[in-house]
Each structure stands twice: as structure tokens, then as C-alpha cells.
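Appendix B. Raw example, untouched.
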Amino acid sequence: MIACYCRVSTDDQSLERQIDATTEYAQTRLGAALSDIEVYRDRSTGTDTARRGYRELMNNVDAGTIDAVVVNSVSRISRSIRDLDRTAERVADGRAELHILAEGLTMRPDDNDPYQKALFRLLGVFAELEAEMVQQRTREGIAARQREENYHHGRPPLGFQKEDGRLLEGENYDHVVTVLDMVQKEEISKRQAARELGTSRPTVDRALKRTDLYGL
């Protein structure tokens, strides 16, 4: 049984591209029939692995019913080196292979290739470092903006709230960052972003002019 795991960040993103890529790989490279392929999917903006599709997949891996796990990229299965290590270890313990298409990596249970292992960990380190750098740029941008008079009056920017004249990240801040990043990458339109965030297109436009607030 081949497991294809696919994840997107918002409802406006399509899973189809990942599903097509992973299932095609399972058939052409692993020789699997369609009846031998199970697709696990998630829609989540979280940075951890507490996702229903992921949990179901890993439970089946733990049970030993999966021969190989296929994902489109490292960022789809995990966003930190800790979670990446945990996932790889569980897949190996379940005697399954892990295939990561974008990075061209294959991890096998008894594979002792030091190059593959080092590259695998390095990719996770870079992913985690990038996330930390984005957070740091965001904090620095917020601190700089808080010193400006115009943030002591009027409504706070999208994804923020104000408290005693200070800008604070709102409950939906992470979701706002994800959606704005998708707009910049032309994965969704501004109109779709406004609908996803429950706001107006002009508000999205204003937010995109203040990318330092969102670490973009």
C-alpha cells in the first residue's frame, strides 16, 4: 500500500496538483496500481503536525500497513526539523519508505547513506531557520511601526489589534500572513484573499503595501 500525503494552507488552494504528482509517482516509479494507493489530505495553516489526515497516515504507518509514503515536498509533511525528524523516524520504524518529490529524496528503513541523511536534516534546518527569520523580521517591523504616530490613531492593520497604542498580533495573524503570501506568489487573487479573510479587497491592498508587518 502506497500512501500519498497532500496538504494545503487554505480552502482556496487546490490539492489536485499535489495529488496528481504523488499518485503519478506512485504508479510510474513505484509500480503501484490505483487500488494500492491511498491519498491522505489536510487543509491547515498550522505549523505543527496535529492534523487529521497526518494523524491517520501515521497511525497506519505505525500499524505497518503502509509500504511507502510519498509527499510533494518537505514543507508539506513538516515545517520544523523536530517534526521532520519525528516523521522520518516513525516512517522508518514502520518499515516504510519515505519519498519526497521536490527534493528528490528517498529514505528507506535500512538505508545508511550518510549523504541522504545529512541532506534530509539540512533541508529541515533551512525550513525552520527560514520560519524563525520571518518571525524575527515581523517582530522588528512591528517595533518600528509602533514608534510611528499614525499607529496610535485609527484602525489597526489587517491581522493586528491595538492595546494602549501598541500593535499586537491578532488571533488570525498567522492566517493573514499565509493568505498574503499566496497573493504575492499569485496562487490566489486579491478577491479570493479578501473572501478568505472576511474583509475587502482595498484592505488586502493596504496590507500588501505593508509587507514588513508580515515578514514577507
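End of appendix B.
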